[in-house]
Amino acid sequence: MKIAITGTGYVGLVTGTCFAEVGLDVTCIDVDKEKIDRLNRGIIPIYEPGLEDMVLKNMQVNRLHFHSDLITCLNEVEVVFIAVGTPPGEDGSADLKYVLDVARTIGANMNRYVLIVTKSTVPVGTAKKVRQAVRDELDRRQVDMEFDVASNPEFLKEGAAVRDFMHPERVVLGVESEKAENILRRLYRPFLLNNFPVIFMDVPSAEMTKYAANAMLATRISFMNEIANLCEIMGADVNMVRRGIGSDSRIGSKFLYAGCGYGGSCFPKDVKALIRTAKENGYSMQLVEAVEAVNEQQKSILFRKLLQYYNGDLQDKTVAIWGLSFKPETDDMREAPALVLIEQLVKAGVTVRVYDPVAMEEAKRRIEYPVIYCKDKYEAAIDADALMMVTEWTEFRMPSWLVLKKTMKHPLIIDGRNIYDKNELSDNKLEYICIGQNQYGRNN
């Protein structure tokens, strides 16, 4: 079976590579010719554990191909996945320009039946727009040709995308015809054989499922951050509260960790798009709007804690930041809390020293303010008046407190992910501030 994937970002490249891994003949398409040239030379544009080895292996056995022009393979494939970007507009709505560009290209050049599958995260109703764009091009050619549009939203976690694709918790497929369903059953047969849930539904429901899932996860994060902030005021410990409510089978323990806010390519964008979709249809999603507001406020919490500790005066202070990507195991810095924090620190007159195991090059591209890029975590801590742990990479979990105490100007650790033991730091004569515990002020 031959398929094409348009877009070679996180979703497209992982999807294409994993389908090749289960035996399909896959052509990944991207209009960025330089990116395609690098991929053909085995240079992977993103950091994702396990992906590079899988790409190279499937290129070697001639199951995975890269090209900059969809037209070259369009009439050789049964399925075209649309996995291009849908960046948020200024009003929060998803920009469907690239999705519809692909649809128009298909309509203008198809010579036989094709199943078009939206893999990009798109608002409810996008399949209708894709169908109309294809139909308009066919009408312009005065051609009446059969095609189908389906929805297959992705649920890949960055840093675990390959594993998530090969061992999915569920595969959601929105279809409008028996023919489309049969093709997708063949496509996902390896997953059906392994008893992974493959759920068929109508297209609008599939489109909504993606947004609803991300909005729910974002809600849990913002809810727990609200609880953490109240814990600090009331003298409770959010870690104990999390264990207490997470043991309830109706709630569960996932996504209940307090921190300095969520970021990435999915949650912020999808929450905004869901809010915008509702407004366009005359409905206000008050809960989801509150989720977004809480998260934006939470991205400033580490700065507020530092400001309070130093009584509002941060001029000429030096701060070390550990972790720049929005989560571990990725170099993605889209909407990362570190970006907000760095801007606030620099504007307050702070010298900022940063280190991330993977995202340093991405940081140099995204950070607009003067910061000092360091080669390791201990270099970042040199002469620091505070160290902020922002992204919980594994290598940050068990640092040498002795080295930090000797290296830093003032031994203050502000933990944005609550990964350290306050008693251990106290025993090592370091001051510790985390999220969701009442511990402001200097230790005596």
Share of β-strand residues: 5-15%
Number of discrete domains? 3
The CATH architecture name of the largest domain reads: 3-Layer(aba) Sandwich
Helix amount, in percent? 40-55%
Count the E strands: 14
User: Helical element count?
Assistant: 19
Largest beta-sheet details: 6 strands, parallel
Report on the structure:
- By secondary structure, the protein is of the alpha/beta class.
- It has three domains: 2-201, Rossmann fold (3-Layer(aba) Sandwich); 211-297, NAD(P)-binding Rossmann-like Domain (Rossmann fold, 3-Layer(aba) Sandwich), CATH 3.40.50; 299-433, NAD(P)-binding Rossmann-like Domain (Rossmann fold), CATH 3.40.50.720.
- The chain is built from 19 helices and 14 strands.
- It has helices spanning 10-21, 33-40, 51-60, 71-74, 97-109, 126-141, 161-166, 178-187, 189-193, 203-234, 238-246, 267-280, 286-298, 301-309, 337-347, 360-366, 377-380, 401-407, 422-427; strands at 2-6, 25-29, 64-67, 79-82, 115-118, 148-151, 171-174, 198-201, 318-322, 351-355, 372-373, 386-389, 412-415, 431-433.
- Strands 3-2-1-4-5-6 form a six-stranded parallel sheet, with helices on both faces. A six-stranded parallel sheet has the order 11-10-9-12-13-14.
- Helix 12 (267-280) packs antiparallel against helix 13 (286-298).
